[in-house]
Structures are given as structure tokens and as C-alpha cells.
Automatic annotation (TrEMBL):
<dbReference type="GO" id="GO:0048188">
    <property type="term" value="C:Set1C/COMPASS complex"/>
</dbReference>
<dbReference type="GO" id="GO:0003723">
    <property type="term" value="F:RNA binding"/>
</dbReference>
<keyword id="KW-0539">Nucleus</keyword>
<keyword id="KW-0808">Transferase</keyword>
<dbReference type="InterPro" id="IPR037841">
    <property type="entry name" value="SET_SETD1A/B"/>
</dbReference>
<dbReference type="GO" id="GO:0032259">
    <property type="term" value="P:methylation"/>
</dbReference>
<keyword id="KW-0804">Transcription</keyword>
<keyword id="KW-0489">Methyltransferase</keyword>
<dbReference type="InterPro" id="IPR001214">
    <property type="entry name" value="SET_dom"/>
</dbReference>
<keyword id="KW-0156">Chromatin regulator</keyword>
<keyword id="KW-0805">Transcription regulation</keyword>
<keyword id="KW-0949">S-adenosyl-L-methionine</keyword>
<dbReference type="InterPro" id="IPR024657">
    <property type="entry name" value="COMPASS_Set1_N-SET"/>
</dbReference>
<protein>
    <submittedName>
        <fullName>SET1B methyltransferase</fullName>
    </submittedName>
</protein>
<dbReference type="InterPro" id="IPR003616">
    <property type="entry name" value="Post-SET_dom"/>
</dbReference>
<dbReference type="GO" id="GO:0042800">
    <property type="term" value="F:histone H3K4 methyltransferase activity"/>
</dbReference>
<feature type="domain" description="Post-SET">
    <location>
        <begin position="221"/>
        <end position="237"/>
    </location>
</feature>
Amino acid sequence: TSFSTPKKKKRDDGMREHVTGCARSEGYYKIDKKDKLKYLNNSRAFAEEPPADTQVRNPRVPGVNGIWRSEQRRLLSSFTGSCDSDLLKFNQLKFRKKKLKFCKSHIHDWGLFAMEPIAADEMVIEYVGQNIRQVIADMREKRYEDEGIGSSYMFRVDHDTIIDATKCGNFARFINHSCNPNCYAKVITVESQKKIVIYSKQHINVNEEITYDYKFPIEDVKIPCLCGSENCRGTLN
């Protein structure tokens, strides 16, 4: 089992000569310092020398980044016209979130306010919470009443799905109701999962409160509305 491995020779062109005919079959071997320095010097000189086509450049001609950005804009515009624009906007919302803050509101308790101008028909924020069924929602509503939690942070998605943001949610749960809101809620489907996203109906200025219509069902026990708008209905339900 013990035999001496033949010493690896070099060819006239400086490349190592493989006795077995395959470099992989001869395993790992060290590289001489002279060969390593020669390789490093050649690679360093190649890196420092710019390509011939970039040595003289017209400043008016867009570079690689500019061409890439224009191509991205072109693809986005083409996809928006043919594919589901809600999906593209939702992906943009994940990477470019709107600057929002919550503080005391003149409508009710806490409210959500814009920290930057928001154009019309833009995604403002996603209503995040736990997806529960109607039976669980009824049980939790009674439990929240026993715990003294007066505000309801449950948002209905469809007939049997409700998003509960009472104890697991984001800033969207602080959005107050208004009979003349500047936003509206919309249910979109992303990767076969329904999500609630708040859209802007009009241009929203900095420090303006984000509001939307809760659209509560009509009930005998009325909940007073404190939005203060000109066309206020007086009640939320």
C-alpha cells in the first residue's frame, strides 16, 4: 500500500504536467511561490487596467446603471399593463414602506399620520394580524370585553376569515374611521393568500391623519362617530 508518488513535472509552457492525465485524480498539491506571485501580478495588472471601451466615455451616454434602471422601468410599465398591478405594488410596498407614525388623534384616542407626502392611488400600509375563523373571532371578542379591551381591531376579509390585530398587528390598527376618508381598504390576493391593504384615495399631506370608512354592518346598538367631517353620518354602524 505504500508507494512513492512520482514527482510532478512542468511542461515547457510552465503548466504542470499531470502523470495520470487528469488533474482531479492527483489530488491537492501546493503551488510554488514563484507561480503564485506571477499569477497575482498578472491578475492585479488586469484589474487596474480599465477596459478599452470605458477609457473614453461620453458623459451624455448613460452607463450600465442607467441602462439597467431604464430597462427596469420599461419592464415595470409593461407588466403593469398586462399583469396584476396589485401584486407589483405590494412587492414595492414591502421594499419601499411609507413613513408613518401614530400619535394622539382628535377623532378618537390614537391615530395614524403620514410623515411624507403620499400620492393618490398608492398602497399606504398592509393591515397585519392573525387570520382566524368566525367562531374564534366570536370567542375572542367576548374575552376582550372581559379583559377591558374596548376597541375592536378585527377586520373581515371574507365570509369566514377575519384578521385579528388586537394583540398581534402593526400600525394599521390605529387608523381611525371617517365618513369622508382619504383612504380605502381593499382585499388583494398575493400567492393564493388574501391580504388587506390600505390605499390612498387622494393626495395626503405630511402630518395628515390616515382614515378610511370602517363600513360596519347596521346594528340596533349604535356606535357614535366622532370624525367631525361635513357629511358625518353620526354613527359607525
